[in-house]
Amino acid sequence: MGDEKDLDVSDHDLTHLAGGLGKMRDHLGDQVRRMSTLIQTIEGGWQSTAGSGFQDVQLRVAKDAVRVGELLRVVEEAVRLSRDGFTDQELDTLRRMRDEESHIDTTAEAKKLLGGGRSKILDV
Q1: Which of 21, 28, 58, 121 could bridge to 109 as Cys pair (CB 3.0-4.6 Å)?
Q2: What's one Pfam family the UniProt record gives for this protein (predicted)?
């Protein structure tokens, strides 16, 4: 257990990982939109408050998906930057990305993800 901190990971593996993270983010958004479409299709038949209760759960799921999507975006960018080693400027970029994450209106982005418009949060 020395102080060796270099990881033996190829550029190809890092590129593949970053691409996989991007695909996962896209897949997550697609699944939330699919869930929303299915719920909208069946909720007209609900005769009780179950429909509105389920909409609340659906919004919470979408908000969580927005948060996870943003974290995947940050990790994807970090993996891409790590291929050539981090410069001080790249480290600053990652810090700014983390700071921006706290300013995201997850409710607005979740509503867009559920069909109220096009969410930009899962785009890179």
Answers
A1: 121
A2: WXG100
16 neighbors 80 (Cβ within 8 angstroms) = no
In degrees, to the nearest 5, what angle opens at C-alpha 25 toward C-alphas 111 and 51?
35
pLDDT in tens, the chain (124 residues): 455 555 577 888 988 999 999 999 999 999 988 988 887 787 777 767 766 777 788 888 889 998 899 889 888 988 888 877 777 787 787 778 777 766 778 788 888 888 765 444 444 4
10 Å Cβ neighbour count for 38? 10
Long-range contacts formed by 55-60: CB under 8 A, 24+ apart: 58/114, 59/107, 59/110, 59/111, 59/114
Q: How far apart are CA 96 and CA 101, in angstroms?
A: 9
pTM above 0.70, yes or no: no
